[in-house]
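[step 3/7] inverse_fold.run input=structure_tokens len=213
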């Protein structure tokens, strides 16, 4: 275990347990750990932990430093990715928690993107929000509440599609500014693939939708 992880775990044990942490019998080791905890928490909080708070301190248990390690390594629990259209009128933010990502070769995706295929990633719609230019959205679809494509009405960029009874969005990966953690794992609807385009990677190919095995 790296030293940081070990001492981080020690912090949890020291704070969370009633008894001394197992294996903590060497006084020098105890002092070393105490010093490390003190330097992470800061002198004021360390003093309160040692002497008891003069007022209730409900925040101690939820201090992010206890969970995420040293301040310079702290990260938000969930990363947010920025996305935008070509002209910059519409911006959105989406959580980096996509559940799947695919390259779709269906003719609709070819038309809406003007490309050979559309790389997209799926996520629950509540995890995407339009942060700027919502009034510049062009919503295209027969049942806008259940399924639609969202474009910028000024430049035409396709940003995302509302799908699956309005519960999910398929983000057009090309509209992301930040790189997502996920990568497309397959080509779908290759039965409609543009004849002038050749797939050159080794990802699985499906004639239509992904078939669960
Ligand atoms: Zn635009
Ligand atoms: Zn498609």
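[step 3/7] decode complete -> sequence:
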């Amino acid at each position: 275990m790296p030293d940081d992880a070990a001492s981080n775990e020690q912090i949890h044990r020291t704070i969370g347990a009633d008894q001394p942490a197992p294996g903590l019998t060497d006084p020098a080791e105890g002092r070393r750990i105490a010093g490390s905890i003190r330097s992470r928490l800061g002198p004021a909080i360390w003093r309160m932990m040692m002497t008891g708070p003069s007022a209730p301190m409900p925040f101690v248990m939820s201090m992010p430093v206890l969970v995420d390690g040293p301040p310079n390594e702290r990260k938000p629990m969930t990363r947010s990715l920025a996305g935008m259209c070509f002209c910059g009128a519409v911006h959105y933010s989406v959580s980096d928690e996509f559940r799947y990502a695919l390259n779709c070769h269906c003719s609709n995706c070819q038309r809406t993107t003007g490309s050979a295929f559309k790389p997209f990633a799926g996520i629950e719609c509540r995890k995407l929000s339009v942060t700027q230019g919502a009034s510049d959205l062009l919503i295209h679809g027969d049942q806008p509440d259940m399924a639609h494509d969202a474009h910028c009405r000024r430049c035409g960029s396709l940003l995302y599609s509302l799908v699956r009874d309005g519960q999910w969005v398929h983000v057009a990966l090309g509209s992301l500014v930040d790189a997502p953690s996920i990568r497309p794992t397959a080509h779908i609807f290759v039965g409609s693939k543009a004849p002038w385009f050749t797939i050159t990677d080794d990802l699985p190919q499906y004639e239509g939708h992904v078939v669960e095995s």
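[step 4/7] annotate
Residues 1-25, 40-69 have pLDDT under 50 and may be disordered.
Residues 80-192 form a domain with the Metal Binding Protein, Guanine Nucleotide Exchange Factor; Chain A fold (CATH 2.170.150.70).
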